[in-house]
Amino acid sequence: MNTLPSAPTHCCFCAMQCAMELHADGAVKPLPHPINGGKLCVLGLTSGELLGHADRLRTPLVRKGGRLEPTSWEEALEVAVQGFRHIAAEHGKNANAVYGGGSLSNEKAYLLGKFARLALGTPHVDYNGRYCMSAAAAAQNLALGLDRGLNRPLADLPRYDVILLVGSNAAECLPMLMPHLQRAKEGGTRFIVVDPRRTTTANLAALHLAPRPGTDLALANSLLYLLAEAQQLDYDFIAERTQGFEEALRAVQGCTAAWAAEVCGLMPREIEQAAQLLASARKALILTGRGADQNARGVATTLAFINLALALGAEFGTLTGQANGQGGREMGQKADQLPGYRDVEDPADRRAVARVWGVEPEQLPGKGYSAFEILQAIARGEIRGMLVMGANPIPSSPHSDWVRENLARMDHLVVIDSFLSETARHAKVVLPGALWCEEDGTTTNLEGRVVLRRAVCPPPKGARSDLEILCALAVGLGAGQYFRYGSPKEVYDELRRATKGAKADYYGITWERLEAGEELFWPCPSEDHPGTPRPFAERFAHADGRARFIPTPFRPSAEEPAAPYPLYLTTGRVLYHYLTGNHTRRLERLKKKCPEPLLEVHPETAQRLGLAEGDLAEVSSQRASARYRVKYNPKIRPDTLFVPFHWDGQQAINRLMNPVLDPICQMPEFKVAAVSLSPVAQAEATLFSNETQMGAKGNPVVESFFA
Ligand SMILES: Nc1nc2c(c(=O)[nH]1)N[C@H]1C(S)=C(S)[C@@H](COP(=O)(O)OP(=O)(O)OC[C@H]3O[C@@H](n4cnc5c(=O)[nH]c(N)nc54)[C@H](O)[C@@H]3O)O[C@H]1N2
Ligand SMILES: Nc1nc2c(c(=O)[nH]1)N[C@H]1C(S)=C(S)[C@@H](COP(=O)(O)OP(=O)(O)OC[C@H]3O[C@@H](n4cnc5c(=O)[nH]c(N)nc54)[C@H](O)[C@@H]3O)O[C@H]1N2
Ligand code: SF4
Ligand SMILES: [Mo]
Question: Which residues does residue 661 pair with via DSSP β-bridges, in sequence order?
Answer without folding.
Answer: 668
